[in-house]
Amino acid sequence: MRVWAFIAMIFAGAAMAEPVQMIERFDAGANERWRYIGDNVMGGVSSGTAQVTPEGMHLSGSVSTDNNGGFIQVRRDFPDGLAADASALVLKVRGNGERYTVFLRTRQALLPWHNYKATFVAGAAWSEVRLELSAFERSSRVLRQKLDPSDVKSIGLAAYGADYEADVWIGEVRVE
After folding, report:
1. I need a surface site. Which of 36, 67, 68, 168 has the fewest CB within 10 A?
2. pTM over cut 0.85
């Protein structure tokens, strides 16, 4: 009888675990879901590429703050938002030890630079990075103080804000 009670406890615990919403595993269709954007759209001189391979999305290039620039990024739209009960964005990443930025744009964003952002360092080995949504910083007082996941309309993964060589792999993106 104790064995059955133990098994019931395991299943009850699994049922209470946080729901996971897979956003991206970077399969063959990812090229249509993600788009590359460089700062040259506003006069910057950064250059880069984004490629989907069996390992994931590879974002690489030269980031330059010359001419008021300073970013290369990949972005994906989410017309229906994220799960309302989401508490974190989890990325599987590896890279060259540099700092990278995640930008979340919401329906309240009036201007292109209105967003919520958080940073992470991508080390040489694959690892999971957990970014609590409550820790994302808003760029403007126009945005709500607290990020509402159901209002997220896009996610941007970027090399941003300094002069450096970007080389980051994103193998998976999910919300928990």
Report:
1. 68
2. yes
